[in-house]
């Protein structure tokens, strides 16, 4: 496969993985008006749980793909009931501070439980090799990531456009007054949305585990990436998360290949450019003062 | 009357701080040097958080860059220490202008995310630009020469360095205090409480936020310039967001509503860190739990909670 | 013949398919008091938001003293001499009443740009704040925290803050809304005194007809974003269309509200 072709494919799998994670952050923000700083930590927990289930408990990858995100979602319910419920009606700074403290707690707990070293999760044998598409050989795992990304995309589209709860969530993210008028801020919905965001983060973590290093720093990396995605795409916007993720995917896919010396900087440069010309992001609603 | 009591307490504390090298062991000289430097870092942060209402998770960018600036000037130019500090402040101020320009335009949530992201960008630069910054090892092996202004000091002596830090932090805090009490400071407080009303009074809120951000960044740079010779290294860790978390925590711990709150937070933080790391490596875990508890139950910080309690007792 | 201080032509605001304000024209002469009335949703607040720079008009122009201020940001419009109050209280809750006014005064005088002048030593500003509070007869509350004073006093504090920028044009958005009858009487008398002093030009929206007829030189009646009628209080009182379309509706509305 040509250089450009494989860079494109690479961009797409990174982009869709980022989408799964960032859209969770965006949904939580849209409905609850909270930026979850611990979102990356929940992603990391997904990866570590998958590592434990596969390498230590001997489960197949597919079981971990189902179970680990559910485990993290349950933890999110506990976090919500134990801590976040105190600050939903407070100033937004308090939710930033509180989720930040959760991030510190999870990061350090991961170090305590699993150690500081790098853990390796092998992809399932079915996805280990490469397959031939359009006359070129492509890593099977990349194709898997793209497929699962598209499935989540379609699922979320269905949720937001075809189900009542999804429409309410979307309405809430567009207009908070309307959300209050519809009385959606019931405890169940709040907890449910927070847990759903965590589920998406952890799902991203399981998918990322065989692709990337599983280490205690992985959550920090992804939370920065997610922030860049939502800033580029627009905070609280569902299509914005997709566009932002694909833009960042392209920056990584092509930057890593053609500009390796500065590839760590490129996402920030992209973000700064979007901020200069479209301060609210490509799909963002106005939040300027 | 009340002002006199506060002033008397303050003078007592300052006298005690001056006396530290004569009444305590070297170990505590180091501890107090760190408390003072981190206290200045936290007070500069609280100018934008407690006063102006902007929560930054990237304040370590200015602290770290300040430390690199002093280290680089010492390594390559061997200028007097005061000149190094001025360079640290200047570089941090310019950086704060650029990051601030892009970040203060939007609401609180964006501001928090952007400061974190830009902070990590500076971290990435320090990490990748090995030829200048020394990469992950950072910069070490520099030594302090003269102090400047023709003042003859043996800066390599920890007690002397402590007194230099005490004097500089004292002067810097006084400057910040005056800024907080000025008409400009009053407007910053007004912006935290109701930015829209300030705009309708004819002020450009963005400009005021940006100026506050630059002042905070400049003094964080000064604190960074002081920490490099103390740690004998300027490393990417000083830029990392876990360092940005420290002034956040110190301010919350001491009380964001009080000028001296962050200093009290810094003292408690450093002493607690020293104590806890003596028997467990999980300082960050303890930190997270303390932060969560403070935010949920003691949002006014130790100073605020104490003053509320004191008022109750007096009644 | 003096020239108008404010000339509004064809001012229009659309939200998606809805037209909140439609082609309003208005000329305001110096030192007059104009009331804008209309039922809820008539577009009064949207109209204010455009004049004060809080919202961008879809069409039309706003000329203040021969200067086009259409679409300028709020702080610039305020600098040019338009000052407004809000329907909901818009003060600095954690400051004292005195400090609330001082913030606006130091903004107006440009002190707020000085980093090193201690605010509590600025006696000129303090005197001026005291004087303003006295004019609104809330000087007794100067040292109280703004969040603890009564609702009516907060509204008066807001008027003091509005006047602190020495505006050419004062926009008051329902100054007596939510007040007790007693507070309403007090406030109406105060505004009347300020208006008759020949110092200010007022634009007032108000629900309370008694207040409107008591204060206004001219009245603009809005209905569903459009101008229904404009004239003196007498003309408005006697206009049949206004009576049926607005005053009647207003009565109904008040009944359902209570």
Number of E-type strands of chain A: 2
Radius of gyration of chain B: 19 Å
Helix content of chain B: over 70%
Named CATH architecture of chain A = Orthogonal Bundle
Lateral arrangement of strands in the main beta sheet of chain A: 1-2
Q: By helix and strand content of chain B, what is the structural category?
A: mainly alpha
Largest interface: A-B, 44 and 44 residues
Count of helical regions of chain A: 11
Low-pLDDT ranges of chain A:
none
Structural class of chain A: mainly alpha
> What is the CA–CA distance across the termini of chain B?
17 Å
Strand order of the largest sheet of chain B: 1-2
Main sheet summary of chain B: 2 strands, antiparallel
Tally of separate helices of chain B = 14
- Share of helix among residues of chain A? over 70%
Detailed description of the structure:
The complex is a heterotrimer of chains A (289), B (315) and C (258). Chain A has a single domain, classed as ABC transporter involved in vitamin B12 uptake, BtuC (Orthogonal Bundle), CATH 1.10.3470. Chain A has 289 residues and is mostly helical. Chain A contains eleven helices and two strands. Chain B is mainly alpha-helical. Chain B has a domain of 216 residues. In chain B, 77% of the residues lie in helices and 1% in strands. Chain B is globular. Chain B starts with a helix and ends with a helix. Chain C has nine helices and ten strands. The C terminus of chain C is likely disordered. By secondary structure, chain C is an alpha/beta fold. In chain C, α3 packs across α4 and α3 packs parallel to α5. Classes of the chains: A mainly alpha (289), B mainly alpha (315), C alpha/beta (258). Chains in contact: A-B, B-C. At the B-C interface, α7, α8, α9 and α10 of B face α2 and α3 of C.
Sequence-ordered SSE layout with sheet pairings:
The complex is a heterotrimer of chains A (289), B (315) and C (258).
Chain A: H1 3-32, H2 39-56, H3 61-82, H4 92-114, E1 130-133, E2 136-139, H5 140-162, H6 164-174, H7 176-181, H8 187-208, H9 218-233, H10 238-258, H11 266-277
Antiparallel strand pairs in A: 1-2
Chain B: H1 2-23, H2 26-51, H3 60-76, H4 81-103, H5 108-128, H6 130-133, E1 139-140, H7 158-181, H8 183-193, H9 195-200, H10 205-231, E2 233-234, H11 241-254, H12 261-277, H13 283-297, H14 301-314
Antiparallel strand pairs in B: 1-2
Helix pairs in contact in B: 2-7, 2-10, 2-11, 2-12, 3-4, 3-5, 3-10, 4-5, 4-10, 7-8, 7-10, 8-10, 11-12, 11-14
Chain C: E1 6-15, E2 18-28, E3 33-37, H1 44-51, E4 59-64, E5 67-68, H2 74-79, E6 82-84, H3 97-109, H4 123-135, H5 151-163, E7 169-173, H6 181-196, E8 202-205, H7 209-215, E9 218-223, E10 226-231, H8 233-238, H9 240-257
Helix pairs in contact in C: 3-4, 3-5
